[in-house]
Amino acid sequence: MQPQESSVQYSRWDDRSRDEVHVAAGSSAEAPWSWERISRKLCSGKLGIAMKVLGGVAVFWAIFILGYLTGYYVHKCK
Question: What residues of the chain score a pLDDT lower than 70?
């Protein structure tokens, strides 16, 4: 197991009434396939546009089929 790299950043504001300390783990602590990375990849650029178009087409057909089946059973002759 490798030791985790971390950095500590300390900043003091000019009025000296607020102090901040930031502790951040190194890049090795992050998972290479985090949800943010996946959503950025799938929701931006040409791939994002293609995913939105395919999602819209899938929703259209799902609503169309649901409406067709509902209309068929509502207006079925007895």
Answer: 1-33
